[in-house]
Amino acid sequence: MRNTARQTRENRTITVDFQNEATYGQLLGDGKVFVELVLAFILSIGLQLKHKATCRGSGCLTRHSHYVRVRLGGVTIWRLQCTTCRVVFTVLPHFVLRYRRMRPDVARDALLATHGGLSVELCAVICHISPMALYRLVCSFGHQGLVTVLTRCGLPLPTYFLADKKHSRCLTAKVYLPTVVSGRVIWHLGYTEEASAAAFTQSYGEFQRTASQQEPSYRIRGVLIDSFDSTTRSMRTLFPGACLGNCLRHALTQLPKKLVAIASPVRQALRTQFHTLWYRVRQQKGLRVFALGQRLRHFADHVATTAGTANGARVRRWFQDKKAGWYAVLADPQMPVTSTLLDQAHNVIDRKLFMMKGFHHPKGSQQAFLRGLAHLYNLMPYQRRAQHAGQCGVEVEGGTVPTRDWFLNLQILTSGGFR
Ligand SMILES: [Zn+2]
User: How far apart are CA 323 and CA 101, in angstroms?
Assistant: First the structure.
């Protein structure tokens, strides 16, 4: 089974906005103006072309050659060459998708509908395309890495993040999606068939490697996890210096599950008291960690007296397992406190995967498909609250996108021609 996206050959295709097809048609007759317009567009979106490592990119671009794309009803595509390092860039006008016959306006509607929750079958029917074409479209965007696209938007690599896996299914087999989220963006969405620490280390390692390539001095300060063993172990292996915290909201939701064979009002009362404990601890600055240790001990004793020694012992063991992670969250004010944002991202991805059930076959391009979904999650201007209405996740986190058009942004940012 293919866990990683197919290695694509070095692709230096860029998408350029020519406003409309007629303008593009006119420009084809004037090479000088064409090159000037392409350069002006690149300048306006604030990205730089990917020349050879040795080239400073200061050389002139010349029109290299052109070829007619028969599949696209005869649209002429220009290629530009750097006069210094000789690399060739393929310039796709905004109304053409790379290697695809589908028109961008059709793709835009279909992707918007699937992101909005419509089944892939319905999206395909209303847009007059095949479900498989929609699946392949998402995969095509997933060939570019998440770290690459997010850093192109000017987002700094996350020094604190949330990490957890999500269960899914491929036919009847259980599969796992190791995920890294920071705020409203997904930095990593992997795919493994095993829940082992080795499998997770390999998946999260892809994120760590690309991040370190982008910024050799990259260090992670803290990770919030939900103490799933393999996730914890893979984080310790990959980011030895990082603090590992446990979600404080889960602390509250897990307590009732630790209390068995007791009357519901007793369980409810203990839950309320536990809630108060956290509220008080979080209000105390400075001595928070010390205060928590003492209060947890008292609380476990209190459980033993009110709910029996068996429950008391279970809660005490649970505290032993978790308290280091809770201390880590309290000790560093910059640590994320809850994993809510990761849960929300997982829910969004889960709905898409459920809809894509028919495409989950062992020979599918799972990794590319998931990455494509993650790009949509990061770049589609959908946020549930009015505060960020009309913004995409990247913008909410302080990044900038090349244009006001989300689909054009997706085309530009997932292209291979930019540094
Ligand atoms: Zn060059």
Answer: 56
